[in-house]
């Protein structure tokens, strides 16, 4: 069974985060600069939440709030669902599907180690299936 650790071995585990006391506008600038759709909110090396484009749409735009005047801690999803290196890719897919989320922070021993997106998971599954097909074709023709 393939795990989150296997997936992380195929990509860089870059942690992009913001403080909970910055404005939503500043967080959006970070997200735009890094071309990401979610950012972790970390304070004193502890995961406090996650802020996504969906949070922005639902908690800021639709409620008529100001991105400039609203702090990220007011708009983030606090205590997000997290995963560990040992969790299976299937488990990640189940969580994302059942909870309607697209990002899962990776936390080991209370330390943030990275984040996995739905795109990362799909890309990993496709690559893994291609490898399996290739091995089966080699076995059949060999």
From TrEMBL:
Protein name: CBS domain protein
Organism of this sequence: Pedobacter alluvionis
Keywords from the named record: CBS domain
Entries under PROSITE patterns matching the protein: CBS (PS51371)
Superkingdom: Bacteria
Ranges for domain CBS: 9-67, 76-132
InterPro entries documented for this protein: CBS_dom, CBS_dom_sf, CBSX3_CBS_dom, Diverse_CBS-Domain
Entry annotated with the keyword Mitochondrion: no
């Amino acid at each position: 069974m393939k795990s989150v650790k296997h997936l992380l071995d195929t990509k860089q585990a870059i942690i992009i985060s913001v403080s909970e006391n910055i404005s939503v506008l500043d967080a959006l600038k970070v997200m735009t600069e890094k071309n990401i759709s979610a950012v972790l909110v970390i304070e004193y090396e502890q995961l406090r939440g996650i802020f996504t484009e969906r949070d922005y749409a639902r908690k800021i735009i639709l409620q008529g709030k100001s991105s400039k005047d609203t702090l990220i801690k007011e708009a983030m999803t606090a205590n997000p669902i997290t995963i560990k290196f040992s969790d299976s890719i299937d488990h990640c897919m189940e969580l994302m599907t059942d909870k309607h989320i697209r990002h899962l922070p990776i936390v080991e021993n209370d330390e943030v180690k990275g984040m996995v997106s739905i795109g990362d998971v799909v890309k990993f599954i496709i690559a893994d299936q291609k490898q399996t097909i290739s091995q089966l074709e080699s076995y059949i023709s060999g």
